[in-house]
Every structure is written in C-alpha cells, then in structure tokens.
Design a protein that fits this description.
The protein is α+β, with helices and mostly antiparallel strands. The protein is built from five helices and five strands. The structure holds heme C.
Length: 188
Amino acid sequence: MANNKVAPVTLITSLALLINTSVFANQKTTEQKIAIPENYQSRFIQYHSVDKPADGDKPAKIRFLYVNPEALVAARANQAAPYGTVLLMEDRKAALDDNNQPLTDKHGRYIPSDEKLAIIIQEKQKNWGDKQPEVLRNGDWDYAFFDGNGVKKQDLDYTPCFACHKGQQVNDYNFTFNVFVNQLAVKK
Ligand code: HEC
C-alpha cells in the first residue's frame, strides 16, 4: 500500500508553526499516563502497516499499526473512536541488502528486521484532554513515545504530536484507524 498519503501538509505546517511559536511551546502537554499494553503483539489486532523510506540519518522502517480488540469491536463508521481506544505503532527497522537498500517482498513491501526502533501510542480515556488548551486539544486523546527498548521519552516535547494530529479532527485526530473502520463498514 502506498505510504505518505498524508493529510494537508500546509495545514499541518501552519499548525506546527503556530504551536511552536506560541506560549504553549514549553507547556507540559501530556499527563504521562500511557504505558505499553502487555502482550500487544498477540492480543491486539494489526490493522495497517506503512513502509517509511530512509530519511536523513533515520533508517528505512516498517510501521505496524495495532488497535486493542475491544475498541475495534465497539468502533462505528463515521463516529469518534470509543473511549479506551489504544492505537499503537511499532516501528521496525527494514532488513537491508548488501548495498544498504531495503529488501522487498514480492509485493514491493519492505521486509522487517527484528530490531524495534520505537513504540508510539495514542490512547483515549475520559477527561484526558481536560487540561489541554483548546488550540492544542485532541479531544480526550493523549500521546506517548517509547524507544525500541520500551523506555518512555519523558522529556520529549509532545506539542508537535498534538499539533499535527489536530489536523485530523474530522477523523477523530487519527490518521489511519477511523479510515480503516469506515472502509470495513463499506465492505460489509
Ligand atoms: C507532522 C505530522 C505528525 C506528527 C508531528 C506526529 N504524527 Fe503521528 N501520525 C502521523 C501520520 C501521517 C500517521 C499515519 C502513519 C504514517 O504514515 O506514518 C500517524 C500515525 C500515528 C499513530 C497511529 C494512529 C493514527 O493516528 O493513525 C500514532 C499512535 C501516532 N501517530 C502518535 C504520534 C506521537 C506520539 C507523536 C509525537 C511524538 C506523533 N504521532 C507526531 C503524523 C504525525
């Protein structure tokens, strides 16, 4: 599947600029309540994946996108994701050939190595957005970024996460899950 079908870049850029230069830049934007769910690889549903080409010093990677099964069952087309939804991306380094180019399978997709680069989560729980300034608030979603060893980046500035995902307001602040649920509904 083609990657980088990203939402309006200009909107994202202008939002990011707005936020970066605003008084919110140094504000603590997350409550830091999110933990990596136990056994997500076996318990969660993998609903999507995206190949990301190398970018500067960032290696080529494959992102595996997971959702908790309870949320998928409760989700309805064209509605906000249910409370308790956990969207998790596992970034895995792509396997490389002798020329350091990503190896691909017969569909042209990258082949993942075992090396995890990051685990990135957005989770929605009641009142989690209450303390957010409206310009940044993503409903009741909060965000967390863990490195490949599962260690949370506490001092990371999470403002860009909120700013960029804010542009997806019509899809309940996420890029892939609501779209996936809508597609499922069409197929039924
Ligand atoms: C410049 C825009 C941008 C920024 C900044 C950004 N994201 Fe995203 N995010 C995306 C896009 C686009 C996707 C869809 C997957 C892809 O193409 O990589 C995504 C997907 C996700 C997903 C999977 C669920 C979904 O929305 O589809 C999670 C979880 C996530 N991002 C968390 C974060 C966190 C945490 C941060 C901050 C550390 C962050 N994002 C910063 C653009 C952004």
